[in-house]
Amino acid sequence: MRVALAQIASTRDIEANLKTCRRLAEDAVEQGAGWVIFPECAPFLGPDRDKLPVAETLQGSQIQTFQALARELQAAITVGSFAERSPDPTRTFNTQVHITPAGDIAAVYRKIHLFDARVDGDLTLTESASVVGGQDAVLTAVQVQGEEAKVGLTICYDLRFPELYRELAFRGAEMLTVPSAFTRPTGQAHWHTLLRARAIENQTFVLAPNQWGHHYGTRASFGNSVIYDPWGECLGCLEEGDGVVVADLNLERQREVRQKMPVLTHQRRGLSAPGQHEV
Ligand SMILES: O=C(O)CNC(=O)[C@H](CS)NC(=O)CCC(=O)C(=O)O
């Protein structure tokens, strides 16, 4: 299957962000992709005080726009995340949505781990002040160009919690999405290493579209949207700029990697019950 990661520099201008998303999705489909994955906060990335008023439900206009786009392009679309209204009127969920080529919502994942950190001198992020963490790991089946893959959904800071990825792998994940707004300093230090480790240790494809460039204030993202295969090989990376990373994912290659070195069946401590396959 041919997939695409879309890399953008989202701001608080929702209309402009959605316009860029459309242009990149069209570009990806023109290059033969059947599945387009957008970064975290693709429709809106702005200060917390501006986020709450634009939070929507799954039935709101932001997700509807992506559903219409999927139908029009006949491609699966993963909205890396959007600000979803939560039961707490002062906070949102940070929610990833997978949409089929028919425009139906197939899976919804609410970011579990929230990024509260002093990034460097002038940038402190307190995600838990404006976001309610989700509870559940989510695995879904994705159909692309006549092939099906089991995909574990994660977001950004989740990447630092390998147990989540192991659980998804044990449940049968063949691919992991990590749409992100990874900051420039932490991205420089850790982005490729963590993603490649998740790919190698779980023997899964890792699909990681990132925000890039300047968003607001001192907030900037690292770019470097990247796809790693189950052997840790880089199948494509875009360091900077709006654009797409297109790659062919060979599920046969993954079976080969897992057959030669069946790591997931060798685990002796910690999480148990490998080999469960549920979707
Ligand atoms: O706040 C928003 O508007 C959108 N959300 C994000 O950008 C999130 C939470 S602040 N960013 C991360 O998780 C970056 C993690 C990261 O950079 C690391 O783990 O190093």
Automatic annotation (TrEMBL):
Domain CN hydrolase, residue spans: 1-251
Transmembrane regions listed in the UniProt entry: none
Domain of life the protein comes from: Bacteria
A Gene Ontology molecular function term of the record: hydrolase activity, acting on carbon-nitrogen (but not peptide) bonds, in linear amides
One Pfam assignment: CN_hydrolase
Keyword Magnesium: no
Statement: the UniProt record of this protein carries the keyword Hydrolase: yes
Keywords tagged on the record: Hydrolase
CDD domains referenced in this protein's UniProt entry, alphabetically: nit
Assigned protein family: Belongs to the carbon-nitrogen hydrolase superfamily. NIT1/NIT2 family.
Listed name of the protein: Hydrolase
Protein source organism: Lujinxingia litoralis
